[in-house]
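Chain X:
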Amino acid sequence: MERQLTEIFEELLDAGRVGVNDTFFELTGFPLLATQLASRIYETFQVELTLRDVFESPTVEGLAQLIVQAQGELAGAEDLQALLAEIE
């Protein structure tokens, strides 16, 4: 996941090598690119992050943690829906 995020950072920012602790905005990222970043994250991981998420966790590592958390929440919601369907 971090490798994929690193590649997304590098493509959007037209940057060389990006590390997991490099900050999106310190690497010349700006709000419009942050919107594109959130969109690419959705396309890649099927997780919707807000611009606020990107501003509050602007590193590869921070965004990866948010994605894992969101994926866990999605999986939990799907399990709950399946359980409710069985009860009905």
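Chain Y:
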Amino acid sequence: MDNGVNIRAGRADGDLLDGLVTLAAVFLTFLAFDDITTDNATSFRFEYAALVACAGWAIALTVRLARRGRSMLAVACMGLLLALLWGQQKIGPGTKASWQPEYVAATAAFLGFVVVGLYLLATGTRPPRAPAR
């Protein structure tokens, strides 16, 4: 079998898994932020631990994409993570939706990761291309 097909098939498998994990991390992030903003608890250790784990996945995803030669997507993921880290400073107990730059940045980054996850799912489910002859 041609190496080009093997590389594409391996990338597709990686994209599918990365897309699934990314969407799971987005869902977990949403749940954590929702709990932080709507709960009256005095400690959010579990929620912040979940956010740290999701940020760890974003870093791992960036590295995985870069190693597969998808540098533009890797840079986009790192930019989304940085925007989310900057924006989360204004998101805490009682936070309501607003047009504050930090809130907008965090929301846009969150949606950006949804797009990345869906894109990876889409590229991961495409059949491998036949080698050029």
